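Quarterly update, task 2.4: zinc ion-bound model.
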Amino acid sequence: MDRFDRNIKFFGIDGQRLLSASVVAIVGCGGLGQHVIQQLAYLGVKKLIVIDDEELSETNKNRYVLAWHSDPVSGLRKVDLVKRTVAMIDPGIEIAVVHASVRSAEALNALKQADTIFSCLDDDGPRFILNEFALAYSKALFDLASDTENKGALIYGGRIAYIGDDEPGCLVCMDLLDTVAVSQFLTNENARRDRNELYGVNVNELDVAGPSVVSLNGVIASHAVMEFMLQATGIRKAKRKLEYRGNMGIVAVKHEIHASDCHFCNVVRGSGDNADMTRHVKGE
Ligand SMILES: [Zn+2]
């Protein structure tokens, strides 16, 4: 326990044991997820499940702390970079990697083993699925989003939302998801093609990569891991929502109002396999 001596001075030996016994899944090993995984490994979480279907690209290297200068940018899976890093921090950590999207049976099965899920995604479609999954199987969910836009003026910040069994409300009824983006994501391939033809444009091609910097990802990820750590060790409950407004240099605690007639909170919550998450699996 020497290696965790300074941790234990913060949250006690019981806190360290609670962290060590946690099983944490991270969905999305991109800009946000990589920081989360690194910090969880240092905190002493001993069981990690990582889910990501991407490979490293050259434009990731401005912010991908798990990648080295010498890493090739073709054919290198992000889950393998995660595995390498975690093994270097602590080879005693058990890590399961799933190189697939959240819309796969493999990912959904792996998530059932977790007690906490970090959603570190770029899009609201897979966020929607994780929200439903977390409610159905009573998992704690930390949903992270960084947001940088340059529409004349540069706006930058992000948020961390916490969804748990201990309070009502979810990403849907707190209106934290873009419903158009979600329905687009959930539409099957044929319907998407039809719609693209209707509008005469490939909607996916409109999705141009925006600005992204390592320090902004680090701020959002650190706040999320902090909330998890405080809650997991019993220091205090995680905040429902934290909002980082980079332009103003502040972090605000937000009290989101949720709709009381939410299908996900009222019907899906606690329903387990009856939620039939496999309907989201691609091709089914
Ligand atoms: Zn809800």
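Highlight for this quarter: Residues 214-232 form the longest helix (19 residues).
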